[in-house]
Amino acid sequence: MEVSNPYKALKSWKKQGLNLDICEINNSFKYKKQKISEFCLNDLLIEGEKYGICAKKGNFRKQMEDTYDIVLELQNSSFKHAFAIFDGHSGAAASVFASKNLIKSIETLDEKGIIEAFQLTDILFCNDNPKKGGTTVALTIIDHDHLLSANIGDTKIILVKNFSFEVLSYDHVASDIGEQSRIEHAGGCIINHRNTMRVCGQIAITRSIGDARYKNYLIPVPHFKATKISIEDIALVIASDGLFETLSPEQVSNIIREKQGYRPSQIAETLAAEAIESGSKDNITVMIIKLQEYYTLVCSQTNRNQSKCFNF
Fold it and tell me: Which stretches make up the PPM-type phosphatase domain (predicted)?
């Protein structure tokens, strides 16, 4: 029997009480071969000496669009380490590009130099990829005894202390009154779409690298903050918004304090797992940097040079 339509053949064979040749039926089906880019990426777990990373693809995401970058030497100084997470949207092109180019574009370790690196990365990406989405960024550079933090979009940076925490980033989202005013002044509009405020009814964030078609409104200028490392600081958390879909910064900080004795990658994995179990459906990437390790190094170097530690 020629199987031109497997579904009709299956009904016919059932009526006749015939034995079914499953292999023949399966071979008759026409199907669309899945592209490599459509396959789910494997979860990621990385263990460094002073940091750890855990990344998990969201159950309701077609692909993992988060990326990261770590540079453990900047300007020939072992104390200048850079950590960043990039959360892409409308594909991973922007997040991958930014992860390869942003940190190496920084010429001076100050607010001006970091902002210029964000702007340059945005220009380079948009010129070559005008229709390939965008990305948020959360970046922290440990410059000897300082944390230099910069972010665009809603990827967060949290400084966890012994008894408190401080959010070093700023959420650039369309529900923010200041961002609404800036966008409307530039000729854009904010529309409530599916219970979420969005720029032109499309994008929930208001600052990004990429998004060339909305470049008049989605600027690449980051929020910048410089913070001095102290003996009270436990860890730095950099994470995409999937972590905070179900966990608050306070909850994240509490978990880190409870798990201080664990390796950074274990803490990152615990946080990601907790967010997923609590109902997060987004991609999640968590980076944990243990600051006591850096504080000890800073004090050791200062003791060698000045015979005493910095007075924090």
Answer: 50-291
